[in-house]
Design brief:
The complex is a heterodimer of chains A (525) and B (335). Chain A is of the alpha/beta class and 525 residues long. Chain A contains 17 helices and 24 strands. Classes of the chains: A alpha/beta (525), B mainly alpha (335).
Chain lengths: 525, 335
């Protein structure tokens, strides 16, 4: 494919667009942090009224690049032009005034303020320094119509999805001409995603330009007009003609090599005697009402459902992170006990859980890789409260190697790793506890295609050792390729189970994500 | 880095922004700035007044650093779990007076000592329970506790100074071995113990983890509330020990015992690099901060500045220390 080794010229390969057509131009931009080169000279042009995909592995320089464009950082050298004007080194405020908005990966929400104040954060209608409450409310009400979010609610009460929507809406409605969306879809449901895309197309028709970062090839192919691919801080390929590209070619551009897609050989566990399974009964609490769920050794079960369907509630309840009112668990060869009331107990009986948001509650960023890997196994590595340093070192080293974490060493701080490597450290931490049941909540969210395959292989290998795995995911592709059985959640209950050939994308979408009864339906207007 | 480096090498380097990559001299100096500033001040004070270099003066500084050292060490533990204990100096005065009164009622000196230290620890337990079980904000809860304990001390002493203490009780504050005072050994022992606890035990590791990210720690199976209560308890315990040291050294418990230590005991660990956001800091840093503040105090007393200016100059020196530390944090965090 000629594209992968594409030219490093400024214009897209399908003919140079007229200069007036380019809304944003990045010229030979370099960004260094001390001895490290995050960007080593990147040039690209973005056409007015296009949706421009930006691809690359974690750590390839995407976030650095959009940070420079949005005025969050200053390039070490090189220039950025908005129209004909050089804007390199401008701050966020002036870039927003010029119409360039960045919607970051982590939602930016001031919890102390109300929804409407967040919606127009820093851009409040005001006269003589006083905020014009009436106008604020009127505009917020109009924007939030149909989203189901109350303008006067406290932002603190919003869930992750609503927070992200609020950020996107802020950019979309603040007169943005160039809107950068850094992985905007990661916590959105299929329905939300579709609404977002519809809205993007509508704005595009009005001449708004988007830079769209995503790890999902399908999304890129669906919505983008052009893509640029970064690898190791350099532009490694670009294309202005996505109609002739497919997912495999995109992955190849990103990785610089063929992506060997992993498909698990689906197994049936129907003939396993019940006594050998892990059985949960009568797990009831806020938003969860599951009468029975059993999983066999070595089985991978996918949990599918919209936010609020009980899927995450159940996963967290059986781990003790969000204690349920009632519920019991029986492990193979063990007797029935109450489900854990706290994560510590869960780890002790062999149930481990990895959250969907590693920055929030998966990692301690300011501690080293070693500390993070052993964090859930400290008791096992200690005698009478004293840590056995040799065993600690061995354990950390073992899982560092086994997970294939790419870093200088065990002493590197978790904060300094790319998303994919952070996720590997988290995986190492939970696997190091030697669990019988591992629950992964969105195990590949926000990590690039290459690492995603690594993670899938790791999970598959775990089951060879008899570990049972639950995967909570909204990624249909992941579901189809990885699990043996799917449980569909709605209204806190398991309403449907899919096995074998029943597990395909269309069926899943219809069964789990297009449900009208699950509430939380229309949200992004 | 040249572009000729292998692509794997480049990738690793981009992802692992470890300081180990290139430790320049400037960076090394910045990392150890507390100690350099300390050394510089000793030289400056010595040049003003050669007495500052004498063994006698150095021994004095060590004695003075003992109480502050115990307090700073104590306050570091709540700081490491991203909380704060402002009641520590008031707790010091209050717990020592409880012990001293018990001795007045005929309890043996060691009983009074233990009662005082135990009282300090109990106050710590109480603070910890308020912060974890009742979800009180530690800044305000311990501030209220500070006012309560200061008031209690005044009420108990009725404004008088307690000074009739048994010889055995005050021995630790007065004893010398070949001119070397014994008291600093208590602070040294406490620091060694806490340093080992932080580095080698499950508790220590948990303290750092909780301070770094409480939600992640809980999800990783660490009992966050328990760790916080322990941190407050140890803080109170060290306040109790500091109270005993101060009483034995001064041979007196005044009605506002320990008030002067308040700001210094918070400033010392922060100057020494303990993060107010939790999860970062070491005992060695705390020691550096304590010695720095003590040298400033002792130095200003020795150098014949007009007394009106002493407070302001001392404040300026602390200001410089904090400013340099802020630069250090920014440089080492720049990515």
């Amino acid at each position: 494919m000629a594209l992968t080794e594409s030219t490093l010229q400024t214009n897209s390969p399908n003919g140079a667009p007229p200069a007036g057509d380019v809304v944003l131009r990045v010229e030979n931009v370099v960004k260094t942090y001390g001895p490290l080169h995050a960007l080593k000279g990147v040039s690209l042009s973005i056409r007015r009224g296009s949706i421009h995909g930006l691809l690359g592995e974690n750590g390839a320089g995407k976030s650095t690049l959009v940070g420079l464009i949005a005025g969050m950082r200053t390039p070490t050298s090189g220039d950025i032009y908005l129209g004909d004007r050089s804007v390199a080194g401008s701050d966020v405020q002036s870039m927003e005034e010029a119409g360039v908005f960045l919607v970051t990966q982590e939602p930016m929400i001031v919890e102390e303020l109300s929804v409407e104040e967040n919606l127009m954060l820093g851009r409040w209608p005001a006269s003589r320094g006083f905020i014009d409450r009436g106008t604020l409310r009127a505009r917020a009400t109009q924007i939030l119509e149909q989203t189901g979010i109350a303008p006067d609610a406290s932002a603190r009460t919003l869930g992750a999805v609503d927070r992200r929507k609020l950020n996107i809406l802020r950019a979309l409605h603040s007169g943005g001409q160039v809107i950068i969306l850094d992985e905007p879809t990661t916590s959105l449901t299929v329905a939300d995603r579709r609404q977002l895309f519809d809205f993007m197309r509508e704005l595009k028709a009005r001449g708004v330009t988007f830079i769209f970062i995503s790890h999902y090839n399908e999304e890129i192919l669906e919505i983008c007009d052009a893509v640029s691919v970064l690898r190791d801080g350099l532009l490694s390929g670009e294309s202005g003609d996505l109609a002739h590209l497919d997912s495999a070619q995109l992955s190849e551009m990103v990785l610089g090599r063929d992506l060997a897609l992993f498909h698990r050989k689906r197994r049936s566990h129907a003939d396993i005697p019940e006594a050998e399974t892990i059985r949960f009964r009568d797990v009831r609490g806020k938003g969860v009402d599951v009468a029975a769920f059993a999983i066999a050794p070595g089985e991978i079960v996918g949990f599918a459902g919209l936010p609020g369907s009980g899927v995450r509630e159940f996963a967290q309840a059986v781990f003790g992170l969000r204690p349920a009112r009632s519920g019991t668990v029986a492990l193979p060869g063990g007797k029935q006990t109450d489900i854990p009331r706290e994560p510590k107990t869960a780890f002790d009986i062999g149930i481990a859980y990895l959250s969907d948001d590693r920055r929030r509650d998966g990692l301690v960023g300011i501690r080293s890789i070693r500390d993070n890997i052993v964090m859930s196994s400290l008791d096992r590595l200690a005698r009478g409260g004293w840590i056995d340093r040799r065993r600690e070192e061995e354990t950390a080293r073992h899982f560092f190697d086994r997970m294939g974490v790419k870093a200088l060493g065990l002493e590197t701080l978790a904060d300094n790793l790319s998303g994919g490597n952070q996720q590997k450290v988290c995986l190492g931490r939970v696997i190091a506890t030697g669990p019988k049941l591992l629950i992964f909540d969105e195990p590949t969210r926000g990590i690039d295609v290459g690492v995603k395959e690594d993670v899938h292989r790791l999970i598959d290998q775990l089951t060879n050792g008899g570990t049972s795995v639950v995967v909570v995911t909204t990624d249909l592709d992941e579901m189809v390729r990885l699990v043996d059985r799917v449980c569909v959640f709605s209204g806190g209950e398991i309403v449907e189970t899919l096995v074998g050939d029943e597990i395909d994308k269309e069926r899943l979408r219809a069964a789990a994500f297009d449900r009208r009864d699950a509430g939380n339906g229309r949200v992004l207007s | 880095m040249t572009d000729g480096a292998s692509s794997i090498g480049k990738r690793v380097a981009t992802e692992a922004k470890a300081p180990a990559a290139r430790v320049s001299l400037g960076r090394w100096l910045l990392q150890n700035i507390v100690w350099l500033w300390l050394l510089g001040l000793i030289v400056i004070f010595g040049l003003f007044n050669p007495y500052f270099f004498t063994l006698n003066n150095m021994q004095n500084i060590m004695v003075q650093a003992t109480v502050l050292g115990l307090l700073a060490l104590g306050i570091s533990l709540p700081l490491l779990v991203a909380e704060i204990d402002l009641s520590i100096t008031a707790n010091m005065g209050f717990s020592s007076v409880i012990g001293a009164i018990a001795i007045g009622y005929g309890v043996p000196w060691w009983g009074g000592m233990l009662l005082g230290v135990g009282t300090g620890a109990l106050v710590g337990v109480f603070n910890g329970l308020c912060v974890t079980r009742l979800r009180m904000v530690s800044l305000i809860e311990t501030l209220a506790m500070m006012i309560i304990l200061q008031g209690a001390l005044l009420a108990i002493t009725e404004g008088n100074t307690i000074s009739n203490m048994p010889d055995a009780y005050i021995w630790i504050g007065q004893a010398t071995v070949a001119t070397w005072p014994v008291m600093p050994l208590v602070a040294v022992a406490a620091m060694v113990a806490v340093a080992i606890m932080l580095r080698r035990t499950v508790l220590g590791r948990s303290i750092y983890a909780v301070g770094g990210n409480a939600a992640a720690s809980a999800a990783a199976g660490i009992r966050v509330n328990r760790i916080k209560v322990i941190a407050f308890t140890l803080s109170g315990l060290l306040a109790g020990v500091a109270g005993y040291m101060l009483a034995a050294w001064q041979i007196a418990i005044t009605s506002n015992q320990g008030d002067g230590f308040m700001l210094y005991s918070i400033a010392a660990p922060i100057i020494g690099g303990v993060s107010v956001f939790g999860g970062r800091g070491s005992v060695l840093g705390v020691l550096g901060g304590v010695l720095l503040l003590t040298v400033i105090q002792a130095g200003l007393a020795v150098v014949s500045f007009p007394s009106f200016y002493v407070g302001m100059i001392g404040g300026l020196m602390i200001f410089v220390a904090v400013a340099i530390d802020a630069i250090r944090v920014r440089v080492s965090a720049s990515r």
